[in-house]
Amino acid sequence: MSALLLAACGSPSAPERDEGYDVAEQNYRELHHALLVIDSHLDTPANLSNPDFDVLADNPSKLGRVQVDLPKMERGGLDGGFWVIYTPQGPLNVTSYEAAKLAALKRSDEILQLIEMHPNEFELATTADDAERIAASGKKIVYKSIENSYPLGTDLGMIEEFYNRGVRLIGPVHFMDNQFADSATDLSASDLGGLTPLGEELIREANRLGMMIDASHAADSALEAIMEVSSTPVVLSHTGVSSLYDHPRNISDDLLRKVAADGGVIQINALGAYIEDLEPPAERVEAMEALSEEFNGISPFDLSSNERERYLARRQEINETYPMPLSSFEVFMDQMLHALAIVGPDHVGMGADWDGGGGVAGMEDVSDLPKVTERLLEEGYSKEDLEKIWGGNLLRIMRQAEAAKQN
């Protein structure tokens, strides 16, 4: 798609601080709660089938797993976001595609059941205009998104099926290369050239329906191919910047400028291992090595469905017994502030990967979101900037996707 380049493709200047402005004299929490606050990547649906989880209760926070519920959203001023239909990557065959499709449809139904069970607290949103209306009614906004299009198999008609079920943001790929695209983290696989021909068809069909494209987890070549094919700007729903920490899941400043010049947005991730070089404890390393030996070094993506579930359960047990060390709020803010310095507040937002591994010391769950607003105000960003960062940029791209929809 064509777009105006940023002025000379340069970096925006830092905001000029209002000399008369003192954050301490402002009720930054009041300002934060007055904003429309949307997160682009909530993995909370993974908790909905857990009998110990009650979305209306103030559940004990568990970093990366239980960070979003109604009381925490209220305290943190989170009006809602994109609730994720996530499916792990599996073998590329008809039987596995069918199993993945059924799992994705079940997760989609669980999100709808959440709304049906709590109609006074949550409402499904399917357009950009829905967000402000739902928030004004006192309910929480539930957009649906797909992380990993693997469950579609090779039947692109399923995209319209998920659209009709409310999905408005779709990501082609996850940890491993699949039938649609190269993954940023599948470093051992053959190069598929960014997008496969089927992947190009996926992008065009999503454009036709008015869905936004999520290029998080996509390899750089896939991200560039998506921007080339798509008629609307791309969303990086939970991504970081590699100039501060060189991880395959992060993108370079040059590529970030291309995303911005194309009208897209980067939503900053708070998963510690993606934003800082964290040394795992020795016990964790030993446990992970034992797990690999137990499964003969076979990739979990090549296991049968039952074996994969057993593997993932063992891995979760290791994660809880020997957790990775935490990154910090300052490291997270360094990521956000760097992205803002490179492309400005028109192209940056929040996608912390809550309940999917995200969270840092000082920002353990969504109740801590006002701290981000406080820090951005201290750095000189305005209320208008914050409106864009906390949801305006996402909704702008959603409106572009809606306008490009073909009947």
From TrEMBL:
A Pfam family for this UniProt protein? Peptidase_M19
Q: Which domain of life is it from?
A: Bacteria
An example Gene Ontology molecular-function term: metallodipeptidase activity
Q: A Gene Ontology biological process annotation? A: proteolysis
Q: Output the InterPro entries linked to this UniProt entry.
A: Metal_Hydrolase (IPR032466), Pept_M19 (IPR008257)
**UniProt name for this protein:** Peptidase M19
State the species of origin.
Answer: Hyphomonas atlantica
